[in-house]
Amino acid sequence: MPTVKNFDRKVISLLQEKIQLIQSEEGAVYLVGPIKLPVNLFGETVEFNWYCWLNCKEVTEDFERIIAKLSDINLAEFQQSSVLVYGDFPHTEQALIRFHSICHTGDIFGSKRCDCGYQLKQSMKHIVEHGSGALFYLANHEGRGIGLFSKALAYILQENGYDTVDANLQLGFVDDSRDYSDAIKVLKALRSKPVTLLTNNPKKLDALLEAGLDVDDRVPLWGDVSEYNEKYLKTKIVRAGHLNEGEGCCDNN
Ligand SMILES: [Zn+2]
Q1: Catalytic annotation on 176?
Q2: InterPro entries attached here (predicted)?
Q3: What is the pLDDT of residue 74?
């Protein structure tokens, strides 16, 4: 039985102002924000607006009902996605968008086995330099959608001669099972004009176009090739159809 909660009215009114209901096929996406987030970006403090979202089967404008559920569902056991927004995002003619798939090893530990961490920071830098944009950090996309534990298994296979695509297939996964539909719904709630996509991955562009994203251009993101990720990056070009148009290569992002 969920605990009965008597929230302070002021607390509820403060929170309700910052929550938005987005209807989806399976229920609702509850978007919270903007929240000011000063970020250390290459030694400079840059202020982003941060939003986080949660999927829920229940569709209601009574956000107190949703808030009341939170402490019973142990959200820390699951990951939530979020988005960093920069500039006058709803109104600028052009905006740079990055859909970044979470990479625990690359983004957090700075692993050199891939170039995710590098791409994450570079895309934030590009967005700020461009003046308007958004970085979506997609929490259910680890290892192109296989999850962190399975990614550890895939790395063992990769250490034994399997490439990144075969490793996922050998573990019984499809090579790429990422879904962008919620992120696109959130993007549409934040901006109605077309966007420019930061990616090296044409499949990702196709998936986003198919899911209804209004894209006017694609900008590649290259760099950080090393002896540790050269083979992995080459596989992405040869097997996963990434475009190698810079001096470096690319990754699953
Ligand atoms: Zn990575």
Answers
A1: yes
A2: GTP_cyclohydro_II, RibA, RibA-like_sf
A3: 83
